[in-house]
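Render this sequence as a predicted structure.
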Amino acid sequence: MRIVSLLGSLISDMRSTITLVLALTYLVGAAFCGVIMLVMPLMFFVRPFARRYFFSHIVTFVFGNYWFSTLFVLEQLNGTKIRVHGEIPKMRDAVLVVCNHKCDLDYCYLWSVLARVEGPRLTGLFKAVLKSAIKVVPVFSWGMKACGFLYLSRSWDIDRSHIKRWAQAMSRDKIPMWLVLYPEGTRYTDRRKASSDKYAKERSMPCYESELLLPRTKGLVSLVRSLDGYLDTVLDMTIAYVKKDGTLLKGSELGTSALKRVFSGDSPVGTVHMHFAHHHVRDLPADDEALASWCQDRWALKDKLLLDLGRTGNFGEILPVDSPSPIRMYTTIALWLCLMALGLNLLFTTSWFVWYCVFAMSFGVLLTAVDPPEW
């Protein structure tokens, strides 16, 4: 019996390893080919001569289909269920999404909801506020820069002007976006929770019973004010994870290994619950301090939602949303595999493509390092 158990464990580990290798090969390979073979030529031959709005729409199509294809790994491969509560996200061209940050998977499951609302087009409008340390990640950081992501250094003296220039450029060029901001500033850990609660107590600010960190409001206020006249909606999103046995999945159980476990087909997540609430910009407080207080009030409501979910197992009524079409998803994956095959063939049969890749990668590194907010 012991030998059988060991063999079963070995086979399971081998299956997880093979799944991880295949998933990473697809995700990295498709990202590399998409950025080098599709996005970079657009940056060289379209961006300098065409309106940024036109360039943005093409890049949105590329990234929307790439992120749409990854839903196979997120959902089908792991058997993860998506549950939408509150309000179904509405199609808008300029939306700021504010959300609690549980783990590195939070972005991915927002794609799942956007794909259910409008398919790859809406998924392609996804953008995020990221820490500048991510700029050192090759391929992905170059693509995210081309897509219009906002990188911040976490130094307010530097970030204040960078946010303003980035927002003014997005507004001027009418770039469609669903921009995700995590006011907590970082993903949840027990250590950060203790530090956040200590900071809040010292300043007579609220401490939350659930796994929430104290929101930092400067970035939110700056973005809302800088995007004034263009931003349509602030979408308040609350996310929580439930295990396959129906119990609440704590942030400490997710950690930095969450992505690895998902790519291995061994995700600890059984169900993702997401609650949405729309707030039109015209209904937000006009005063900066009042807007900061509004954000803190939203976090108090998130705290209640998360506590209720811990007791009841959901955020209330589950809204009807259709799952993404499997045929469309498999077709999209097949097209990306064809692009990867073409890229691999060119890489091994032509010298000009190798030199082009070297040039494109160098350009990506330079552009991301300089990070002009108007690009």
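Summary. The longest helix spans residues 2-45. The beta strands are 81-86, 94-99, 126-131, 150-152, 177-181, 233-242, 271-280.
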